[in-house]
Amino acid sequence: DAKKLVRSPSGLRMVPEHRAARSPFGLDEPPWVPDKECPRCMQCDTKFDFITRKHHCRRCGKCFCDKCCSKKVPLPRMCFVDPVRQCAECALVSQKETEFYDKQLKVLMNGATFFVTLGTSDKSELMVCRLSNNQRYLVLDGDSHCEIEIIQISTVQILTEGFTPGGGNTRAIGMILQYKVPGSEEVMQMKFTAGEDFSCNKKLSASWLAAMHKATKLLYESRDQ
């Protein structure tokens, strides 16, 4: 869809004017601490001067010396694909998120097959579930077609099996998803269950659900910003 681009607060990139057109997993750039309010490094307290220059972390916006803000890693949640300067704490978080963008996001877009049950119905439909290329919709295709806007999803519960009292690995076998119907306060529920037959690859379904679990965490964090 057409979307107008505007310059971000840092002036370093262009972003869609309206947040609704952006990825639901994205974060807004933080306001930068003004130079005049930061005479010392906010990490090691070193005083800034002509030799010790100040740098802003692209993720938190705080002011640091070069030593405390020397990490340069991608920040995909703010659309910085190339490595940008970040403090050590933020760089660690961004590195973990980069794994989601490099791996889990591709899994979600490739999709997996589930039996989908709407509400309290006792009937289910075999559907391929995937994340749209613009990351804004969960697309379900079977005998019918359905699209759920990601920002309308209110809760996601991953269903697992394999837990034993003595400990052990669990395996994701499905999920329960609740979402709001656009234009109303009505909340709908869908249940996704990995198929037992050979045509439904259990390993692929489990990987897709694990990726969805990580995506949900990022979604909630974006909303809390």
UniProtKB/TrEMBL annotation:
Keywords for this protein: Metal-binding, Zinc, Zinc-finger
An example molecular function term from Gene Ontology annotations: zinc ion binding
SUPFAM superfamilies for this protein: FYVE/PHD zinc finger
Keyword Zinc-finger attributed: yes
Source superkingdom: Eukaryota
Pfam families: FYVE (PF01363), ZFYVE21_C (PF16696)
PROSITE patterns: ZF_FYVE
Residues of the FYVE-type domain: 35-90
CDD domains, sorted: FYVE_ZF21
Alphabetized InterPro entries for the sequence: FYVE-type_Zinc_Finger, ZFYVE21_C, ZFYVE21_C_sf, Znf_FYVE, Znf_FYVE-rel, Znf_FYVE_PHD, Znf_RING/FYVE/PHD
Protein's name according to its UniProt entry: ZFY21 protein
Species name: Sakesphorus luctuosus
Gene behind the chain: Zfyve21
